[in-house]
Amino acid sequence: MPKTIRNKYYKKLSYEKLMEAHIKSRKGKSIRKETILFNLKQEEYIMWLYEQLKNKTYKHGGYTEFYVTEPKLRKIEKSRYIDRIVHRWVVDNFLEPAFVPQFIPTSYACLKEKGMHRAALYVQSTMKHCKRIWGEYYILKMDVAKYFDNINKNILLEILKRKIKDKELLWLINQILFAQKREKGLEIGNYTSQMFANIYLNEVDQFIKHKLRIKYYCRYLDDSAPRTYIQVA
Hints:
With 233 residues, this protein is an alpha+beta fold.
């Protein structure tokens, strides 16, 4: 993928790509009512969605709000199933291939072949390494409070624009980002939100690694808050 995304929107927009996004989106959710109803006329719905995206008449729908209590009380904002297909298409075809390669190797947040267990293994092995070298060392653990709620969408959009020069793709990202016309707060539950949160906090990762030159550093991000671990001799 080139350094910037240009003239890719229509090249990646196809019935087949949207159907692929649908198949991935319904994985593990095939018995839900909304998925069953969509599957009954999936060819028609996908073609309709294709035309909406092609003609730029697509409008992101509203959200259904509910709360979960594990591991703590959180508000979840659930989008329409057809919007979740769009989220998947955007992430898989644009955001992931363009942004993930620039992430630091020790970002374990919501990425393929990363995750919580690999983050824990990295921290454990680094602790053993530091023990061998220095004997005594310090660990600084940081947590961004209410991270998703405090992400500034305008700042996020400016970060995205550094790499995305495709006006059609930016139009669609605006539809997703500002569907709930508010400046702050990403919707927990959106497939795009996890990637947006990683892109946003990658700015901090790059600063810590390349400006502060912290050698032992890793970040883990679940769907509620990022956690950072730094070993300091």
